[in-house]
Fold this sequence. Notes:
Helix content: 40-55%
Order of helices and strands: HHHHEEHEEHEE
Distance between the termini: 60 Å
Structural class: alpha+beta
Number of helices: 6
Number of strands: 6
Shape: elongated
Amino acid sequence: EVEISVSMKQLVYHVNDYDLWLQDSPESKKINGILSLLGRKIFADVMMERVRNNAPLISETDHFYLKGLEQSKQKYFFERLKNARVINNRLVIVASRHLSELSQYVRDIDPPPEHWKDVEYIDMMNFEYGTHALRSYNPDFDVSEIAGRNGGGGHPRAAGYPMNISVL
Length: 168
């Protein structure tokens, strides 16, 4: 039987908490921010070193950089929404980064603009990867049905599909 350290259990908990959209702990978002800043390889190396040494998963230096990342995201979200358009029952946003957090940012706008009154879902078009990332704006609206009709898939609240752009 292999014994798993408390640090490793904490790391696994926070990664799953963020990745599965549970987000029960604010630390999970911070650890995901560190991943975003470092990239997968360096993040894995740094976290494994911290686990081996029973060091805190989030260092004081990390907190400094995470503040900068959060300010950068807020500016990015604001800029993305300046060009957002409502088309029928969807809010279309062109974006290539921080899609889940951007959709949460949109849902947290209270009160929402009047012209969003019929919006049931958010369609984040990512031209860099050629995808549509869909997030339900209305909790009763199933975006996986839209994704499925367009060759994609997902969950009722979060789904996606490839863009079908033909170049002449």
